[in-house]
Amino acid sequence: MSCLTFAREMLKNLFSPPVTTEYPLKPKKFVPEVRGKVVNNIDNCIFCGMCQRNCPADAITVDRVARTWTINPFSCVQCRGCVDNCPKKCLSMQEHYTDPATAKTDVVMQGKPLPPPPKPPVAPKA
Questions:
Q1: What region, left, alpha or beta, does residue 55 occupy, with left being phi > 0 and alpha being psi -120 to 50 degrees?
Q2: Cα 82 from Cα 66, distance rounded (Å)
Q3: What phi, psi does 13 have (nearest 5°)?
Q4: Which residue in 5, 49, 75, 102 has a CA-CA distance of 20 to 30 Å to 58?
């Protein structure tokens, strides 16, 4: 009886397409729900620090005074918490993961410096 079951399974597999993908020949297609790596559009960032407060892995550091945004991509757990809580929507997730590297380095992005404060108006002399 088990021989017939095996023969039926073997014939089914011979005439059906493979279940696995041919990775080197066909690149992987990501679905929209896949989480990838965090990308910051630094021109829209206001350095509020919401992404830093919502990061469970403490992978993001925001410095308001120096206007720098730093992420350690090897500590990031791709939870998407920073992207969902950004008030300016300057953070997004790319569909591919962090590239392999031999050294763990932080990605530091420098924002535009703040404009100087306006000078108070001078009262006219009477």
A1: beta
A2: 20
A3: -70, -30
A4: 102
